[in-house]
Write a structure and sequence with these properties.
By secondary structure, this protein is α+β, with helices and mostly antiparallel strands. It contains 4 helices and 8 strands; from the N terminus they run αββαββαβαβββ. The strands form 2 sheets. Strands 1, 6, 7 and 8 form a 4-stranded antiparallel β-sheet that branches. Strands 3-4-2-5 form a 4-stranded antiparallel β-sheet.
Length: 229
Amino acid sequence: MKKIILILALLFMAMSYSQEQKQVPIISVSGEGKVKVAPDQASISISIETKGTKADDVKKENDKKMDAILKFIKKSNIAKEDFQTQRVSLNPNYDYEKKKYNYIATQSVQILLKDLTKYDELMEGMVNEGINRIDNVEFKSSKMKELQSDARKLAIKDAKAKAEDFVSVLGQKVGKALLISDNSQNYNPHPIMYAMKSMAKDEESTPRETLAIGEIEITANVSVSFILE
């Protein structure tokens, strides 16, 4: 009998504790933090594509062009760890008008350019060596981890400011954070493009500029639940 009474008492205490826990007043808000910075790096994806009627000839020609490209990249003082072959393919392609197959060879290279002042020189040189496709140019920052950390801190501050706004008219205060969720999407920087003022006095004296660097934006999103006091 004593055991039954003890068990019932424990169950009653557990239920009471559970009810008390459910009655803790909280407020849940979202916060966003943004950091803008001028990029100092660029991730460049380029390709060489060659077409022809014979698979062997197409591959040999494409390989020859890629060999020249890779040698030029090395001569441009790009560190070996900063460029890499991404994709190699050789595919048949049926020509319905001529009713026969031809072949397309493609090879892509990803380059991390750490000095944006060399962009025009690098791109012009690779075009001269045979690239016929620029697949993508993505701006980056060498201080990405620090910028991500700054964006997260701003997101938390934004969430707390929102919570304080909501409860300011209720005579309550925002207490400790009960739950924090990171809703950021892989911290992908979004380019914000604008025209870069040219420093050229005339076309002969200064190299032309073809890259509008602009700024990149690193964004962090959080959800926070605060206890109300």
